[in-house]
Amino acid sequence: MARVKNVEAFCNNCNGIRKMEITGDFAANENKKWAKCKKCKQTTVIDFNLEERAAKVSLEGIENNSFKVYSPAASFEIGEAIYHKNWDDYGKVISKEILSDGNHSISVEFQKSGQKKLIESLTT
């Protein structure tokens, strides 16, 4: 019987960091794997190249520097400081990804809210 490997990763359905079971390889990319969320049982692709984002981002004093106000229609760069008006919170973009539905998302480490995923470059 094969040994099961579990990892902690962001679940797009649960909107949180969850324990996930690796279920298989993803097409021709050895750094991506299929994983099944232990909570909602939905399957998603995890990119293990993005695991360098696990290092804690320095958020000290970013409200005093230049920042961009978050909007779902705007585009952001990794490392860019942003301000989310609804949450009254400052953060830094730590990664970007293209979702399975073709939309773009960013992962942001906020001072108060912690790590969150937000939509970017949304067109109507």
Which quaternary structure do these chains form?
single chain
Helix content range? under 10%
For the largest beta-sheet, the strand count, sense and barrel status come to: 5 strands, mixed
Tally of separate domains: 2
What does the overall shape look like?
Answer: elongated
Structural class: mainly beta
In whole angstroms, the N-to-C terminal distance is: 48 Å
How many helix segments? 0
Low-confidence residue ranges: none
Strand order of the largest sheet: 5-6-7-8-9
Radius of gyration: 16 Å
State the total count of DSSP E strands.
9
Taking all residues together, what is the mean pLDDT? 81
Report the sheet-strand fraction.
over 45%
H and E order = EEEEEEEEE
3D architecture notes:
By secondary structure, the chain is mainly β. It is built from no helices and nine strands. It has a five-stranded mixed beta sheet, with no helix packed on it. The chain has a four-stranded antiparallel beta sheet with strand order 1-2-3-4, with no helix packed on it. Strand 3 and strand 4 (43-47) form a beta hairpin.
